[in-house]
Amino acid sequence: MTGPDMTKRGTAGPAAAGPAVAGPMLEVSDLHVQIAARHGTVRAVDGVSLEVAGGEALGLVGESGSGKSMTLRAILGVLPPEARITSGQIVLDGVDLVPLSNSDLNHIRGPKMSMVFQEPMSALNPVMRVGHQIAEGPRVHMGYSRSKAAERALELMRRVGIPDPERRFRAYPHEFSGGMRQRVMIAIALSCDPEIILCDEPTTALDVTIQDQILRLLARLCADSGVSLIFVTHDLPVVAQLCQRVAVMYGGQLVETGDVREVLLDPRHPYTLGLVRSAPDVEYVRNSLVAIPGSPPSLVTPPSGCRFHPRCEFAEEDCKVQPTPLRELPGGSRSRATACLHYERCQDAVAADRVGP
Ligand SMILES: Nc1ncnc2c1ncn2[C@@H]1O[C@H](COP(=O)(O)OP(=O)(O)O)[C@@H](O)[C@H]1O
Ligand SMILES: [Mg+2]
Predict the structure, then answer these.
(1) Distance (Å, rounded) from C-alpha 309 to C-alpha 42?
(2) What is the residue range of 293's domain?
(3) N or C: which end of the chain has fewer CB within 10 A?
(4) Confidence of residue 330 (pLDDT cuts 50, 70, 90)
(5) Any atom of ligand 1 within 6 Å of the Cβ of 64
């Protein structure tokens, strides 16, 4: 369905113009990403479906190696050469990105979608002045003149809280602190007024105070400009602070999705329960601080049935054989879903945690 462009970006360049679509702004369906490795084929993303509405922030959480980064890279079209999308759809504003060529994607990266990486130093050009790196997108994608793009860069530097932007415009990335470099990355990500920003653990390398400042900045920018966010992290309190919805990933698959508070306070998957119980800083009724036993599954030869069953305290025989796709919970709010066959056990465990010993 098309209609008048209700989004904030009606004035952007021609490459950015797309149909205004009712429904989710980004919809990923049954995404599969495989990596050719020496020890076999890694099924890094194995049937992930998720959606993000306009202006919404979705947190994507899970242990290291669960496929979070590969999911984001697949969405942006920047997978490493050994990885490829084997099936699935990634529909942004009504257009499926999966069949698009790299040059087609170049019209989408920047104006529609951008990414903030964990390590800004590797994403920034070390020999190019910071201001010019921020101005590049508007010049290339929005047809701005050199001086207009420079003005835009200065405005963005102000917006992301870089002090003394006139002077810092001419500086190089190594002259910036880690936190300031991440602000530069965010300015670049915002520079063409995208619909959605993908963040891959953008604050993990920063100390706690700076981390908090960057998170506040992102939250404010999203609220002000209505840009959507997918925020990858293993830090649950950060998700609670920044995101409205959360998707929990385990072994290349989603195991639980829903409203952040519902999922973190009342989990319906044993893996999520394990995460919230073992996290010292997340608000849950009873943090036992006991780590989930066992280790993450192999993504070359994953366990049969539910991938979490070898580590699960509630596992039954059927968990070892039945595939466990996400299913919506009866009576839950929008996209409240779990992949657990026996989620009532989880519900009972949460109830018991509430009562206490
Ligand atoms: N270049 C690669 N070669 C082989 N396996 C890889 C490569 N990159 C990532 N993987 C594997 O893909 C899986 C998903 O990785 P990733 O998406 O980076 O996880 P996360 O971001 O959740 O920590 C992991 O099992 C990881 O070991
Ligand atoms: Mg990662």
Answers:
(1) 20
(2) 257-355
(3) C
(4) confident
(5) yes
